[in-house]
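#random but structural
TW: two for the price of one
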Amino acid sequence: MMSRLGPSRWLVVVPMGLLAMATVYPLLFTANVATKTRREYILDRFSLASTLRWDNLSTAWNSVGMGRYFLNSVIVVACAVALLLLIGSMAAFALAQVRFRGSSALALVCLTALFIPFQVIMVPLARIMAEGGLVDTYPGLVLAYVAQFLPFTVFLLTSYYRAVPTELVDAARIDGNTLYGVYRRIMLPMGAPALLSVGILDALFCWNDVLIALLMMPSAGHRTLMVGITSLRGQYSADIPTFAAGVLIAGLPVLVTYLFLQRQIADGVTAGATKG
């Protein structure tokens, strides 16, 4: 039995192994460059570092204010994800379980918004934010992230909440619960896997963003970490190891998130997709 399944397994293992290597190699290459001296990198950029020089990490962290950029990203991402989950879960509950006129059309609008690239709304969004005095402010960037990623959040949570039996909602209403009571006592606890999954994905989207953050936070003191990395490339264009150290610092939170929460991400998305 094992011998007969061998060739078919190799057809899966080999492509997946190559894909894994293609994914891991850039990270290993960046980590290796980040521990080199400038001279070692110029002489041979692909060789292993002779000694691990962690001072490149401290230079990247201290010289260009990456600590401030890191704090900016943490504040913005935390606020944006909290708002996305709050608004998205309420909207998803209404679209999935509350019967009202126009709900199908509203769900279609949310789905259509997924296919609108940010570049289409970039100019009007920047003008609205500038007129409201929200440029170079935390609330401005948070609202921009909410506007960009809310359709995705609503779409996934709606597909999950549609799997909740309507009998539970009807029984809760008969027991005297308001719609808010049903949302708080039933939907939030039952939707915890999907909320965790979508929250992690939204956090990764916001953390890795460059375009929206560059548009909404142009001044140096308000930059997020990813925008700060781009400025590091311009300031240290001849010092590639320092730039690689900055890239490594910015990528570590994302890597740690995937390593420790990959099962929650997969379980939440799969549950919302297959039960809905």
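TW: number two ↓
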Amino acid sequence: MAADYQAPTAVKPDLRTRLQNLIPKLVLSPSLALILVFVYGFIIFSVYLSFTGSRILPVYDWVGLENYEKLFRLRHWSIAIKNLGIFAGLYIAICTAIGLSLAVFLDQKIRGEGFLRPIFLYPMALSFIVTGTAWKWFLDPGIGLEHTMHLWGWESFEFDWIKNRDFAIYTVVIAAVWQTSGFVMAMFLAGLRGIDNEILKAAQIDGASNWNMYRRIIIPQLRPAFLSAFVILSHLAIKSYDLVVALTGGGPGRATEVPATFMYSYTFTRNQMGIGASSAVIMLMTIAAIMVPYLYAELREKK
């Protein structure tokens, strides 16, 4: 009987099924090809340029790590790194705090949540150029907040941070926090709505106060949201260019210079393409150092 058994043969898909499987690949292939060339191809090209003596135009004379040595000896690069540390630290911390606070506020099932949520999310719909331009007008002592207060009779009011070397970087923080806090709120709100209510009811029955519930139960379960917020805010901070250019132009002086504006300046203004490419590679490595562990952890959890 065993010798007479024949395994079922696989049914070949008909032409319609094969076309249905092939069409999505054909539709996506041009986009994939463009991404490979204009994203990953130019990343590889930039890495190569960072090891060459390129100036106003690319050249292919290999100089090794010379550009990186010059980069870390430049005072302008040190200033850019320092400003990035101040900006990124405050930006991430304040956005996380405000986003979590707004999410907890909206999670109380308040009236008008459907009206308030779009208001908090609206700034994220704007580009950083628009945000920077609007805040530049608002903070300009000649036409913005300080001028308005003087017209209202408060002559002693002063708010000239945008023109002050010591405080200009904090105006960039203010504008960036205003733009992104609503998005962080949405992430935390989704995390709060995903917590099992049975756990919270059991804690309430055991007599847990609201403070202890948030501190011991709710906040620990928001770990994925905290991690996602950190990754997104970190890479936004590192590659921040348009907001800084629109708001302060990197000034006054170099008070708001960051690696992204440094890279553009040295590549296209100072005609030091090799050094500009090396600064871009440092930025890429920093973002990769944040993203790769996050992606690895996510993929590992899914498996």
